[in-house]
DNA sequence: AACATGGTCAACCGCTAGTTA
DNA sequence: ATAACTAGCGGTTGACCATGT
């Protein structure tokens, strides 16, 4: 096993991709696929190395890619998966459809790691209790998703405001660890996809939709109907 | 207004595992 | 069996932007 020769890098362009290069790459892959990354740039007429083309496609140009802010659920999923998988970003990315390992890695280093560290400090030396950390993070998530919704539950004609603990008790554990699953309910699928503003040039999220009253019903429905599934079955046990 | 600092993220680098001849 | 080669992975870098002083 030897390393690939780097001599071909000579004369190759580096740095940010231009829209023109993106278009060439997209067009070529649509026509011919990407069975051979090394040969692709030459055939496509790009002055880039195969590695660079592959990275650009996987991390940015792929049509199924989901760009923009991570949802609280996605962040929690990353935290949970990182707890069990460590820095295996590609394995974590495999559980988050539309997210790339690079993006997840960036989010971890820029947001989540810091957040966990802060939580560690706030816990007065109880730093080794990862469950405690996770619970605090969950609380943050629950606040963002649940508390905004008015949680008046009608019970025998008596209006009763649920406490945080009550709400938490309703939340199935899998809600926090499972990737949002798509069931046969086409309406739900449409709602979910509708969160992505496809009209945006960079497929960014329209965050207002996450907390929009009209969509809150969807989130609540998702929340309460979540069930444990045989998730992460391919994750080896340690 | 100008500069310093910190955060974000696209892209690159170096390595390993898998495949092929 | 072995060397050559490719794809993919994780770590790191650096440009750009926002915010603070």
TrEMBL record:
InterPro entries per UniProt: Homeodomain-like_sf (IPR009057), Myb_dom (IPR017930), Myb_TF_plants (IPR015495), SANT/Myb (IPR001005)
One BP annotation, GO: response to freezing
GO CC terms in record: nucleus
Start and end residues of each Myb-like domain: 9-61, 62-112
Localization in the cell: Nucleus
PROSITE patterns xrefs: HTH_MYB, MYB_LIKE
Location (main, coarse): nucleus
Family annotation (Pfam families): Myb_DNA-binding
Key words, A-Z: DNA-binding, Nucleus, Repeat
Domain of life: Eukaryota
UniProt protein name: Uncharacterized protein
Protein source organism: Arabis alpina (Alpine rock-cress)
Lineage per the UniProt record: Eukaryota, Viridiplantae, Streptophyta, Embryophyta, Tracheophyta
């Amino acid at each position: 096993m030897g390393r690939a020769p780097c001599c071909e890098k000579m004369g190759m362009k580096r740095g940010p991709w231009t829209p023109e290069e993106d278009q060439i790459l997209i067009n070529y892959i649509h026509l011919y696929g990407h069975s051979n990354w090394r040969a692709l740039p030459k055939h496509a007429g790009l002055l880039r190395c195969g590695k660079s083309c592959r990275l650009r496609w996987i991390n940015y140009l792929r049509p199924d890619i989901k760009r923009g802010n991570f949802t609280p659920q996605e962040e929690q999923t990353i935290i949970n998966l990182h707890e069990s998988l460590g820095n295996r970003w590609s394995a974590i990315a495999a559980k988050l459809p539309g997210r790339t390992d690079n993006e997840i890695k960036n989010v971890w280093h820029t947001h989540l790691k810091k957040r966990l560290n802060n939580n560690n400090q706030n816990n007065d030396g109880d730093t080794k209790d990862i469950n405690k950390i996770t619970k605090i993070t969950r609380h943050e998530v629950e606040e963002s998703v649940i508390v905004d919704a008015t949680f008046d539950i009608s019970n025998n004609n008596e209006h009763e405001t649920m406490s945080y603990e009550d709400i938490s008790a309703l939340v199935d554990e899998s809600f926090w660890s499972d990737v949002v699953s798509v069931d046969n309910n086409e309406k739900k699928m449409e709602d979910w996809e509708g969160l992505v503003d496809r009209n945006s040039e960079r497929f960014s999220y329209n965050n207002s939709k996450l907390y929009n009253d009209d969509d809150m019903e969807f989130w609540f429905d998702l929340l309460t109907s979540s069930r444990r599934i045989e998730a992460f079955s391919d994750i080896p046990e340690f």
